[in-house]
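FORM 12-B: Structure-to-Sequence Request
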C-alpha cells in the first residue's frame, strides 16, 4: 500500500505545484488508500480546504473551497460538513472545531474513523468515514472537548440504499 500512496501523492503534487490550490504548511494529508489509488485533503496557503482522489495515474476528482475558512470555524465545539469523495467507495469528509472525534458508529455498529489532520491553525481537525456506496442518514459521534465528553451526529445525506441511523 505504501507504493500506491507514494505514487498517488507524487501525481497530486505534480498537478498542484505552484498553483493557487497548492497545499500550505501541512501538505497533502492522506484520507484513504486503496489498491489502485488514494484520497487526500489539504489546506491552501490562504486557508481554503481542498480534497482529491487519485487513481492509477490521474487525478480523478478535485474540489476546493472558494473562500478561506469555508465552512467558517465555529467559536465553540461544532461539527461541519466539508465534502464528499468518490473513489473505491463513497467518503464523507467533515471538520470538528475545538474538539476531538473519538469514535463513530452507523446504526450502532462501529465505523472506521480516520483522523485526517489539523487545519485553521489547529482550531479545526478534519475527519473522514468511508462506505462501500452511497449511504443516507446520520452517524453518531463520540466527542471530547473542554475536559469532558459528549455525543453528536453527522448528517450523511439522503441518497443511497444503505442507511445509518439510530441503533435498533
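FORM 12-B RESPONSE
SEQUENCE OUT:
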Amino acid at each position: 500500500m505504501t507504493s500506491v500512496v507514494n505514487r498517488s501523492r507524487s501525481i497530486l503534487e505534480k498537478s498542484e505545484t505552484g498553483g493557487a490550490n497548492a497545499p500550505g504548511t501541512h501538505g497533502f494529508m492522506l484520507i484513504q488508500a486503496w489498491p489502485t489509488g488514494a484520497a487526500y485533503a489539504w489546506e491552501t496557503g490562504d486557508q481554503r480546504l481542498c480534497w482529491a482522489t487519485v487513481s492509477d495515474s490521474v487525478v480523478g476528482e478535485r474540489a476546493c473551497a472558494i473562500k478561506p475558512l469555508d465552512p467558517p470555524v465555529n467559536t465553540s465545539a461544532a461539527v461541519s460538513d466539508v465534502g464528499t469523495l468518490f473513489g473505491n467507495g463513497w467518503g464523507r469528509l467533515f471538520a470538528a472545531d475545538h474538539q476531538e472525534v473519538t469514535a463513530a458508529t452507523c446504526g450502532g455498529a462501529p465505523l472506521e474513523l480516520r483522523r485526517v489532520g489539523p487545519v485553521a491553525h489547529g482550531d479545526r481537525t478534519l475527519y473522514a468515514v468511508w462506505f462501500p456506496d452511497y449511504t443516507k442518514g446520520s452517524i453518531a459521534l463520540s466527542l471530547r472537548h473542554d475536559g469532558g465528553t459528549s455525543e453528536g451526529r453527522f448528517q450523511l445525506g439522503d441518497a443511497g440504499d444503505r442507511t445509518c441511523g439510530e441503533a435498533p
